[in-house]
Specification:
By secondary structure, this protein is an alpha+beta fold. The protein is 30% helix and 37% strand. It is found in: Cytoplasm.
Length: 152
Amino acid sequence: MTTGTVALAPLQHADVPACHEIEVALFPGEDPWSEDAFHSELNNGNYYRGAYADDELIGYAGLAASAYEASIHTIAVAGHWQGRGVGKMLLRDLLARVDEIGVPVFLEVRTDNEPAIALYKAHGFEQLGLRRRYYQPSGADAYTMGRPAQSV
């Protein structure tokens, strides 16, 4: 899938150091995913996609799915690429995968991340609950959001 100069492709183990760099830059004051966490997600066969511009990893997204439900684990876009539709592109790719399976999908999002909340709502997610002090070590709260199964 390509939009302008950005292309999506399966995330590879070779991309993990770049993923970790994006994590560290985007989530100061939190506990960013380690390289081992990314490798584990890939080793477990979860669905992970990278967004690439001129062979540079500029974002990534991933989910785990079963026959009953899916959970979006992460969507992140490098700061200098935010606001250009890369997050939307990654989300739509994940949702297309979820819709192939035909299951509901869930996620957590910081309560102060208004752009992400608006993106999720625009794609059929509803707020289901609140998880107090979900993000550590900052103690930031998260909304649990969900989208019902869609028929393809």
